[in-house]
Amino acid sequence: MIKKSYTDEQIRLARYAKALSHPVRIQILQILSQQSCCYSGDIVDDLPIARSTLSQHLSELREAGLIQGEFNPPKIKYCIRQEAWAEAQKLFENFFKNLKNSTNL
Known about the structure:
Elements: H1 8-19, H2 23-33, E1 38-39, H3 40-45, H4 51-63, E2 67-72, E3 75-80, H5 82-103
Antiparallel strand pairs: 1-3, 2-3
């Protein structure tokens, strides 16, 4: 039996899906989408979590490439990375479209 490797598209889609797999990270993206950029201190005021927990969630989103942070001591300003967001949207659309076509839903 020959094992197939994952495509680059599958790997990127899975990475975005993992980053979006927690309600706090969804809420962070919603907050950031309503403004051009935001400091982490302002984000934590809108969420029912500790600063350290927020930092972990921001790190996950940053590692996936969905957001970027700009260090302005002593604060970090976060913004959505529009090109990554557009890619994620396209990957998810293609995934669900192809899934729908293959299952005749």
